[in-house]
């Protein structure tokens, strides 16, 4: 059984004092007791990685970065940070291919594949995000878009590397909109993503992979989403900025663990 992972993507939010208060509230209200049942990952802006890392010392909560450069070496690339720098900051996971970066920073499938590789050779877990826009869904392009996004990454890796990737399905139309894929819609897509991965690595290996769902996940819809067979946790944006909302979602993941 895959252990559920709930990841907090703070996006471009936070200040020192606000972060401290949020983490304190999470710790005081049950975050640390979740760990043997649910893996929790906090993904703050890069400038706050050290702060969050210090606040999480002695806990099982993992630290993630929102982005890395695909270049592995240090050198002349102003404004960028490489995977080794993330290792230095106790980062374990890195978001790759988030739809906001694909849209606003023109990140291509090929660049997403390169960043995924840069994570893997550095011992970091890439959390690769895929998902279709509303337009693409309405034009019947859902499977074509996901096939392109997933297979560009998957086919660039050997099987051992591929087995270390965590995937997130985030329909672009559900991000920050309050619209969520229904549990059935999400399950169908997650099963499709797993079937794509199975074509590259075989069913047994694909069955071990984590595929998270993201897009307006809240405490009140998380139970049903996490009850789906191929949904292995959540990638949470807006609701991760409130301790009670985020803990509500983590507790929903715990319920699935108890049922299974
Ligand atoms: O993009 C997301 C997480 O990476 C989802 O954001 P929301 O939960 O705010 O919709």
UniProtKB/TrEMBL annotation:
GO terms for cellular component: cytosol. It is an enzyme of class 5 (isomerase). One of its GO terms (molecular function) is triose-phosphate isomerase activity. The active site is at residues 98, 170. Signal peptide: none annotated. Its main location: cytoplasm. Its EC number is 5.3.1.1. Pfam families: TIM. Pathway: Carbohydrate metabolism; erythritol degradation; Carbohydrate biosynthesis; gluconeogenesis; Carbohydrate degradation; glycolysis; D-glyceraldehyde 3-phosphate from glycerone phosphate: step 1/1. Substrate binds at residues 9-11, 176, 216, 237-238. Involved in the gluconeogenesis. Catalyzes stereospecifically the conversion of dihydroxyacetone phosphate (DHAP) to D-glyceraldehyde-3-phosphate (G3P). Belongs to the triosephosphate isomerase family. Homodimer. This is Triosephosphate isomerase. It comes from Nitrincola tapanii. The gene is tpiA.
């Amino acid at each position: 059984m895959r252990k559920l992972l709930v990841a907090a993507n703070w996006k471009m939010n936070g200040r020192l004092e606000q972060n401290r208060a949020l983490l304190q509230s999470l710790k005081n209200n049950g975050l640390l007791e979740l760990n043997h049942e649910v893996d929790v990952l906090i993904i703050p802006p890069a400038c706050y990685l050290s702060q969050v890392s210090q606040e999480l010392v002695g806990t099982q909560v993992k630290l993630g970065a929102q982005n890395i450069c695909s270049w592995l070496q240090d050198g002349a690339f102003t404004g960028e940070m490489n995977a080794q720098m993330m290792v230095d900051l106790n980062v374990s996971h890195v978001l790759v291919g988030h739809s906001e970066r694909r849209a606003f920073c023109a990140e291509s499938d090929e660049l997403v594949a390169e960043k995924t590789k840069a994570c893997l050779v550095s011992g970091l877990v890439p959390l690769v995000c895929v998902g279709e826009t509303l337009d693409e869904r309405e034009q019947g392009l859902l499977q074509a878009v996901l096939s392109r996004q997933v297979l560009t990454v998957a086919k660039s890796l050997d099987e051992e590397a591929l087995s270390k990737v965590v995937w997130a399905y985030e329909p672009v139309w559900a991000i920050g909109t309050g619209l969520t894929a229904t549990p059935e819609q999400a399950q169908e897509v997650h099963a499709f993503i797993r079937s794509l991965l199975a074509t590259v690595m075989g069913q047994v290996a694909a069955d071990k992979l984590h595929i998270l769902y993201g897009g307006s996940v809240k405490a009140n819809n998380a139970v049903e989403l996490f009850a789906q067979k191929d949904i292995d946790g959540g990638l949470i944006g807006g609701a991760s900025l409130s301790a009670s909302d985020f803990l509500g979602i983590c507790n929903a993941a715990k319920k699935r663990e108890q049922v299974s």
